[in-house]
Design goal:
Number of helices: 5
Strand content: 15-25%
Radius of gyration: 21 Å
Distance between the termini: 77 Å
Structural class: alpha+beta
Order of helices and strands: HEEEEEEEEHHHH
Largest sheet: 8 strands, antiparallel, barrel
Helix content: 25-40%
Shape: elongated
């Protein structure tokens, strides 16, 4: 009986803790962020639009960031098609397999596959050609919204908001509040 339990334990341990992630695109639960994942043995490489990150196994399903300044960050493999990204003492974020594209150029901000909000504003350019410039700025804001974390996003949005405000007849109201929060819009002044 002990041998059966031992074999069952080893099997479960191998299946649950030894899973390799499928190579390809993974998207956050909210659909706002997509990365490319390559899992080779004890290393996971995550290619973001602006950076490559390497994570090494620290035992079981946990992989830790290899750069010392990012040592608090980790990846927890949950299955062969999903993982959690987190920081020690912080919240975890679920990423799920969303396709087999593994070319970094396919994850870089280029529209359709990675950012439905970008697609929305790119379509507005065709629907409302009289306001092409405004919709183009909204599309750029959508890429910032889909690509960058909250801290980086405001920095990226500031010049877009300034340019957008400079062409609007009524600059007090943002035409694309789903990608530029009202509080951020109000906080940016035209130089």
């Amino acid at each position: 009986m002990r041998i059966v339990f031992l074999l069952l334990f080893l099997f479960v341990n191998k299946v649950v803790l030894g899973q390799n992630l499928l190579a390809g695109n993974y998207t956050s639960t909210d659909g706002r962020y997509t990365v490319i994942v390559e899992h080779n043995g004890s290393t996971i490489k995550i290619t973001e639009p602006n950076k490559e990150n390497l994570y090494k196994s620290s035992g079981g399903a946990i992989y830790r960031h290899t750069e010392p300044k990012y040592a608090a960050y980790y990846i927890k493999v949950a299955a062969n098609n999903k993982y959690y990204s987190g920081k020690n003492g912080g919240q975890e974020y679920l990423f799920t397999y969303s396709g087999g594209n593994t070319s970094p150029s396919e994850v870089l901000p280029s529209g359709a596959d990675n950012c439905p909000l970008y697609d929305k504003y790119a379509a507005m350019i065709k629907k409302d050609p009289n306001n092409t410039q405004g919709w183009a700025f909204c599309a750029a804001a959508a890429l910032a919204y889909c690509t960058y974390n909250v801290n980086e996003r405001k920095e990226m949005l500031t010049p877009i908001i300034q340019a957008l405000k400079s062409i609007l007849e009524q600059p007090e109201k943002c035409p694309c509040e789903d990608v530029i929060p009202a509080t951020v819009w109000k906080s940016v002044k035209i130089d």
